[in-house]
Write a structure and sequence with these properties.
The protein is built from 14 helices and 13 strands. By secondary structure, the protein is α/β, with parallel strands linked by helices. It folds into two domains: 147 residues, Rossmann fold; 173 residues, 3-Layer(aba) Sandwich (Rossmann fold), CATH 3.40.50. A five-stranded mixed β-sheet has the order 9-7-11-12-13, with helices on both faces. A four-stranded parallel β-sheet has the order 4-3-5-6. Strand 5, helix 5 and strand 6 form a beta-alpha-beta unit.
């Protein structure tokens, strides 16, 4: 009888382990995902997802990564050097494409024998409409899982973190960051709910890199303007995430606040290039100088946002990242400085790195131009 009892307990333990090793979930494209066993080999569509992996597994972000479409250096060259210094094996991760969906080699992905491929709903790589690629990968034994930090980050950042944490067995680290993210989001929402006066805002992408003036509206970080208590002037005239507007449009609309994404690198700044630059290696003075240089070369000097010291810029790479919560804090502070005077997005970013990331952070990631 005792032997029978032990046998029964052993059977129950085996069954519970079997259940724990099977993952049944839904990805961000609404697809049912079933994975047998723990995930030891996986690929990512963009190297920038290594920042997400750094949050989830700071002890070794590249553990289990067998391939990616692009390297981290495409968008985060300074962080890539820190990654290589700390985790040299990252240098050997194969790539299966370049910077676009049509550059991806399905054959190379299949050769990597990944159990899972994390793809973005709408990134530079293959998206959820790439039916042939999805079918071929899944037929080869690679489960395709869609995440999203770019198309609708307000809605999808938390579910994407939760999904990746579940699949990679990093639920605890994922939940720690989700709790912080939700706390910051709730604080902004609660204060904005009491604000009646909402300034008009133009959110311009790649300031100084692209022609004037590409604006964000219905997608990406565009909805952050409304969430932070502003009115995005591009919403009424530009269906879709981004659209090109004329300088005359800005002069006529005359927004109360102008915000630009800064996609310049320090090497470009050092060479005198025009793209607005903030980020690694940039001091506060350099960042403001870069923004001021751009604004002085356009008709922006005539709009109230510039004349009233309400023109700002932030690091472009926040737009496809779980760090987007610090952008929401920055928007709220820029739009409603009195209501959010106790909020410091730069301090938030540095605290996130200290508490969650295996790397230190340097540089300036937000700036404001002070009109002369």
């Amino acid at each position: 009888m005792l032997k029978s009892l032990f046998s029964g307990l052993a059977l129950c333990l085996w069954a519970s382990q079997l259940v724990a090793a099977e993952i049944n979930t839904i990805d961000l494209a609404g697809r049912e995902i079933k994975i047998e066993g723990s995930v030891e080999r996986f690929g990512v569509s963009e190297g920038r997802y290594l920042t997400v992996l750094s949050l989830l597994r700071p002890e070794n972000p590249v553990k289990g990564v067998v391939g990616m479409m692009t390297t981290l250096g495409w968008t985060h060259p300074e962080l890539e050097q820190k990654l290589y210094a700390r985790f040299p094996e990252a240098k050997n991760i194969p790539t299966f494409g370049m910077q676009s969906a049509d550059s991806v080699s399905i054959e190379k992905i299949i050769e990597l024998k990944a159990q899972v491929a994390f793809l973005g709903l709408s990134d530079h790589g293959p998206n959820s409409k790439a039916k042939e690629l999805i079918d071929l990968l899944e037929a080869s034994g690679t489960k395709v899982v869609f995440i999203d930090f770019r198309l609708d980050p307000l809605k999808n950042t938390i579910p994407s973190l939760k999904l990746m944490g579940e699949i990679l067995g990093e639920q605890e680290n994922a939940q720690r960051y989700i709790d912080l993210y939700q706390q910051k989001l709730d604080l902004v929402k609660s204060r904005v709910a009491k604000i009646k006066d909402k300034p008009s805002v133009f959110l311009q992408v790649h300031a100084g890199r692209r022609e004037c003036c590409w604006g964000m509206a219905e997608g990406m970080l565009g909805p952050f303007v409304g969430e932070a208590g502003g009115v995005n002037i591009a919403d009424a005239v530009a269906p879709g995430p981004t659209a090109l507007h004329t300088a005359e449009f800005l002069l006529v609309e005359n927004p109360d606040v102008w915000i630009g994404t800064a996609s310049g690198w320090k090497q470009e700044y050092d060479g005198g290039a025009l793209p607005v630059t903030v980020g690694p290696g940039m001091s506060d003075e350099m960042a403001e100088g870069s923004l001021g240089k751009y604004l002085k070369t356009t008709d922006f000097q005539a709009i109230d946002a510039v004349k009233n010291d309400r023109s700002h810029a932030f690091w472009h790479n926040f737009y496809n990242s779980p760090f987007n919560i610090v952008v929401l804090e920055a928007f709220a502070k820029w739009l409603h400085p009195e209501e959010f005077k106790d909020i410091d997005p730069d301090a938030s970013l540095r605290q996130i790195y200290k508490d969650f990331m295996p790397f230190e952070i340097d540089g300036t990631y937000f700036t404001t131009y002070h009109h002369e």
